[in-house]
Specification:
By secondary structure, this protein is of the alpha/beta class. The protein folds into 2 domains: 183 residues, Isopropylmalate Dehydrogenase (3-Layer(aba) Sandwich); 138 residues, Isopropylmalate Dehydrogenase (3-Layer(aba) Sandwich). The protein is built from 12 helices and 12 strands. A 12-stranded mixed β-sheet has the order 3-4-2-1-5-12-11-6-7-10-8-9, sandwiched between helices. The chain is globular, with a radius of gyration of 20 Å.
Length: 325
């Protein structure tokens, strides 16, 4: 029996709603939701959910999650929150949940962590440098090169060389070391976490038409292709660089385990078109299992009962799978 921790994310967003929705069904493992018990109880009342909140007791053997119950790792809000209204005062509350989840995973209390969405802007408004879950967790865990991968079931997986950067900063960040390092982590975790014996990875070029033989940019010739050659010499089945506009077609994708895109909006729009609302964000390269939803905080849906919990459910199921369940 395994135990997973779920952080409830930005308190003004739909994270608490989605966590309440977890109590709507049985799960074959234990789920512990990190968050403010009062907020979860309030949001359950708004949503018309009759649930029993139980405090998390470290050291007890995990048991299966029963419908109508929610085990809570209590973290207090700094200030009461209204659904849909951001408050920078609660930024450290959001990070305290992540810290508790990381510490629990490292200590072996939890087999993995699942994160509901956070609002990067309000954390930065609080004076805290924060570019995203993946980067924050990597820093906490001492990992130099985390890799963000989104998965739409087994239909499509897309990993990124760069993540949350302005588009103007992307070309300088595409280095041989970055491409090779990302491929190394991706290949290793596809084998170890996803149990794919011989993953075939398709790699996008940076420029239109993958540079058109240097006429539309030389990054493919001078950076990406040499990195792929080095990866192949190390036993990684990396194909490319390929034009991104034709890579995401059924014929080209057939038989591949994942696509490696150079930047955020090169690969993720296609992935989200395929599986939005049921896709999962996976942080590779970490010593712990971490999955997340494929969407943001949806402030306009918080407390309305219209938030779709599908992606959180998929993230929980994939975390259990990656953790060996």
């Amino acid at each position: 029996m395994m135990r997973l921790v779920v952080t409830s994310g930005e308190p003004a967003g739909i994270g608490p709603d989605l966590c309440v929705a977890l109590a709507g069904r049985d799960w074959p493992f234990e789920l512990v939701v990190a968050g403010d018990p009062g907020l979860l109880r309030e949001r359950a009342g708004i949503l018309g959910q009759d649930i029993v909140l139980r405090p998390y007791a470290p050291g007890q053997a995990p048991g299966p999650q029963r419908a109508g119950e929610l085990t809570v790792l209590a973290r207090p809000l700094a200030r009461p929150v209204l659904a849909g209204r951001l408050d920078a005062v609660n930024a450290r509350y959001v990070l305290s949940m992540l810290d508790a989840a990381v510490d629990g995973c490292v200590a072996g209390e939890f087999a993995g962590m699942v994160t509901a969405p956070v609002q990067k802007s309000v954390i930065n408004d609080a004076g805290i440098v924060f570019s995203g879950h993946t980067e924050y967790l990597a820093h906490r865990l001492g990992v130099a090169r985390p890799v963000m991968l989104l998965a739409a079931g087994d239909a499509l997986r897309v990993a990124l060389v760069t993540t949350h950067l302005p588009l103007a900063a992307v070309p300088a960040a595409i280095t041989r070391e970055a491409v090779l390092g990302t491929l190394t982590v991706l290949d290793r975790d596809l084998r170890a976490r996803f149990r794919i014996a011989a993953p075939r990875i398709l790699v996008c070029g940076l420029n239109p038409h993958a540079g058109e033989s240097g006429h539309l940019g030389r990054e493919e010739i001078e950076v990406i292709a040499p990195a792929l050659a080095e990866a192949r010499a190390a036993g990684i089945d990396a194909i490319g660089p390929l034009p991104a506009d034709t890579l995401f077609t059924p014929r080209v994708l057939e038989g591949s385990a994942a696509v490696l895109a150079m930047y955020h909006d090169q690969g993720l729009p296609v992935l989200k078109h395929v599986g939005f609302g049921h896709a999962v964000n996976v942080a590779l390269g970490l010593p712990v299992v971490r999955t997340s939803v494929d969407h943001g905080t949806a402030l306009d849906l918080a407390g309305t009962g219209r938030a779709d919990p599908g992606s959180l459910f998929a993230a929980v199921e994939l975390a259990a799978r990656l953790a060996g369940g």
